[in-house]
Amino acid sequence: MAKADGKSFIFYGVEEIKTEYLETFDFNSVNQYIKTETNEFSAVCPFSGLPDVATVVIEYYPEGKKCIELKSLKYYFTSFRCVGLYQEGVTKRMYDDIKKILKTSKIKITTIYNTRGGFDTTCIEGELWNIILAVQRLERKN
Predict the structure, then answer these.
(1) Looking at the domain assignment, is residue 58 inside a domain?
(2) Between these two residues, 75 and 9, which has the higher pLDDT value?
(3) 5, 26, 52, 120: which one is catalytic?
(4) Residue 31 is part of a domain; what is its CATH number?
(5) Which tens digits make up the pLDDT trace of 69-98?
(6) Which one is catalytic: 5, 26, 45, 123?
(7) Is 52 designated active site?
(8) Residue 123 known to be catalytic
(9) Is 3 domain-assigned?
């Protein structure tokens, strides 16, 4: 594999991501669409050691009757700051962690990264609308 030229920075592995920071609160409205986004996310490219800065969009329906507590989400996101993880891996990790704590299958995580090396990268994990459409089709048949 190629190596990045120039200076190198120390970064840590995924074990430094603080999933335990995530908290929820009870919320009984399973049909409510919730969208949370921030442009203050950063992790570290494990190739170059340079920061990857992104906007993160979390969309979900609280099937598990839980909502994400935003201060805890901010702390969780901050724990990525010194972690070396490719952009696609970041998106998958967020999806897995947040889906698990919310106990919902109707969740979609989108990361929109700032341009690096002339490339714009958007990563999407999960489906939101396809699940809803499938349920509606089933309900119409019954």
Answers:
(1) yes
(2) 75
(3) 52
(4) 3.30.1130.10
(5) 999 999 999 999 999 999 999 999 999 999
(6) 45
(7) yes
(8) no
(9) no
